[in-house]
Amino acid sequence: MKPITLQNYAEGKWVAGAGGLAELRSAIDGEVVSLTSSQGLDFAAMLKHAREEGGPTLRALTFHQRALMLKALADALTAKKEALYELSYNTGATKADSWIDIDGGIGTFAVYQGKGRRELPNERILIDGNIEALSRNGTFQGLHVFTSLQGVAVHINAFNFPVWGMLEKLAPTFLAGVPAIVKPASATSYLTEAAVRVMLEANVLPKGALQLIVGSTGDLFEHLTTQDVVSFTGSAATASKLKAHPVIVRESVRFVAEQDSLNASVLGPDAKADSPEFDLFIKEVAKEMTVKAGQKCTAIRRAMVPAALLDAAQDALKARLEKTVVGDPRDEATRMGALVSASQRNDVRDKIKEISADAKIVYGDPNASPFNEKGAFLSPVLLRCENPWQARAVHDVEAFGPVSTLMPYKDAADAIALANRGKGSLVMSAFTYDTDFARELVLGSGSFHGRIAFIDRDSAKESTGHGSPMPQMIHGGPGRAGGGEEMGGIRGVTHYMQRTALQGHPRTLAAIVKRYIAGMPTENAEQHPFRRKFHDLPIGYQLKTKAREITLDDIEHFAHFTGDTFYAHMDEEAAKANPLFGGRVAHGYLILAFAAGLFVDPDPGPVLANYGLDNLRFVKPVKPGDTVQVALTVKDKTLRKPDQGEVRWDVVITNRDGETVAAYDLLTMNAA
Q: Is residue 385 annotated as part of the catalytic site, yes or no?
């Protein structure tokens, strides 16, 4: 089969490299499958194209429009994923491995499109936190907002996840409204290139939103600016080199690094050889050694067990690894495919030699070439380190393949200290049923780990496991792991945005963020707001109700009708003894019910449903004989469907003296 020459996608067109083609070989048989080069690309022009074409168009879209774009891309990739699976075999990945990479990446797009539509406004400005009072009378207030960066996100990805690694960065980037230039690792760039073609052919991305480099980045870094972001995944050595680039330093370019780390898994001190947690631990360590042939930045490199269980753990791991069939990833009987390349396999062998200075191999032969000598196959290798505190390499050297080191610990404090010897990791897992140990582990090791997964007999069935970063959670870690935070739900989106503190009159701030802020001018409701459709409700449209007196009979009727006969409502003497009340008071929920009775319009109309309230606070007690009055104000609006939208109402309930007694946000769904 003739090798395919990969192409770059630059300035809106597919372009082959002008020379210096590099050969990309199949991990299965060593045959050349692709040729690649980025020579001849004008990297300055690519950045300009993204800034001047992609950026403005993306920023003009709302968060919801960008989220719908992600959904369309996910649908397009799903429709073509079988072709991607076929290409993925040449990377050495089994069908199960490819599922993690391809379906996992598509799933990340799906999660982000959902969160974008649920958690972000149908707007272009994102409010961060609450209003800050900066003056006595409220005419000068503060508010934090996020806006899209006006640069380019340069994504430099690793070889082990050519699809997921790209999509997990693109999802928050596109949702933030920032264009991207993707630079995959060359070894598996043919799979990335195919996925990029699918996304571009979906015809939903604005021109300039996505570009691809299948080769060297040349002088790309020379043209970066303070509005750009570099998001890197790979080795600490490469990250350090890129982070120290003079332009990165001079322009204060944001640099997000997700580096390989020596992740640990700890079998809790409460475990026994016959406990469920012991079996779960053995299963997970073996899985993390063999999935993707151990080529995962989250793989378990250091497996820690109570000293008394070291032999039992070794025997159980060996027995499980012996069932691992290494072979052609297309064969359904295969449980572990090849490493990505012969050079990668050789690197793993060299690293095993270094680790062997501290530990002995108790399973596997790193020098053997199972299945096909022309491929990049390697058997799983388990090492045992008797004295982890006297060892260096097991805590400093990572063999990025099917390799893990088993080691003992004395007690909980020893386990925590050993885990921290990794100098910062993406993830640690703990297999324990002891919640006290779990808390102790977080207090002692939380600052050294980006994620801690607790797995036990109760969570195992639904757990995603040690090595699966989820889009909703942060993927990154401190120290050796790079200090970055990818994904993490909406947190990941804000890495591609600028937080700005705004200060001014509520009128100005409200106009900027298109949300009601107390103190801004309001429009008195000439027509009851519940008689108006979604699009006919302006922000600040306010209904002030008449007042209603709350009597002792009201309180007692409500108490007996609901069954809430709490002493503060029913026992005058006991209520007087309460320093917060000084006598009987109305139920908080009675106040809410009366408030609804004051502002609800009873007839059928545009309000389709009342589906909740947020931020409820009871501020001041209401005593018998006092009155309540409501100010109902349109606070925010989000169109959910073409014919209906969510209206957020600011509800403030005041007493006879104009003091706030309760406040909350009411949510309704209104016809558009």
A: no
